[in-house]
Amino acid sequence: MHQLRRDFFERDTLTVARNLLGQILVHEDAGCRVAGRVVEVEAYIGLEDQANHGHRGLTPRTAIMFGPAGVSYVYLIYGIYWMLNVVAKPPGAEYPAAVLLRAVEPVEGLEIMAVRRPGRRQREWTNGPARLALAFGVNGTHNGIDMAAEGSPLRFEAGEPVPDEQVRTGPRVGINVPEPWQSKPWRLWVEGSPYVSRG
Hints:
Blueprint: H1 6-9, H2 13-20, E1 24-29, E2 32-45, H3 63-66, E3 72-77, E4 81-87, E5 97-108, H4 110-116, H5 129-136, E6 154-157, E7 167-170, E8 187-190
């Protein structure tokens, strides 16, 4: 299947977020492959965006967000949950920007995901960013991976485009920052997908 390369991610962040819907997130590790169709994302854009980790400037933690597009940004929340993002912005842009992967529909490696998400129904394996990371075996060791490099173990492959009439937008989830950033409609999802998070 065709891998998404650098030029896909080297565009306006919201454009990339919209076009990630329907694409296939893939993780290959130790001969095991899991994959899922992206059904929910959130965009974080620029120094002005107070919900963006990089809005306070360049730090060791956020340096990846200031770097080239197509690279993974993986961070820990609450000391236990990993969150997978991909840097997305035009070539040469010096501001921090990334798209958070909030939910996917499992399509390959279901038996592996079932082991990683024991006691959960299939629709609960990947319907949230922390759940997605658990099901895909993503953790801090995957921070800074070039997802656009040929044959990267963590990457996106081309899927079926999602028609505009199936795409919904709304405020990002769990954001407690001043307006207008609180209400920015930078969360995008596929209407009707059972794998979209409860947010």
